[in-house]
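Reopening this one. Same input as before:
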Amino acid sequence: MKYSDLKDAIRQRTGITEKDIDAVLDAQRDIVIEESSAGNEVRLPDFGKFQGVDRAGRKGRNPKTGEEIQIAAKRVLKFSPFDAAKARVNIQ
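Same output, byte for byte:
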């Protein structure tokens, strides 16, 4: 599903305008990114939680040359679905 398809589905279910849908989806994205980067969890009921997780630096290999390289530490966005969401898509 593309972003435009998602907006169409939301419009059909709710009847709100495309402009309002854009505003809500943009705000949700920004809040999830801001809170996760600050180390906080964002929980969406019956769906799941987003959180920023620190990954330690590690050694890896350049697949082209086989040379050992150092992979830098970084913070990544992690999503964990709740059991209700898993059950609805049947992926347990």
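So the earlier flakiness isn't reproducible anymore. For the record, The chain is about 40% helix and 30% strand.
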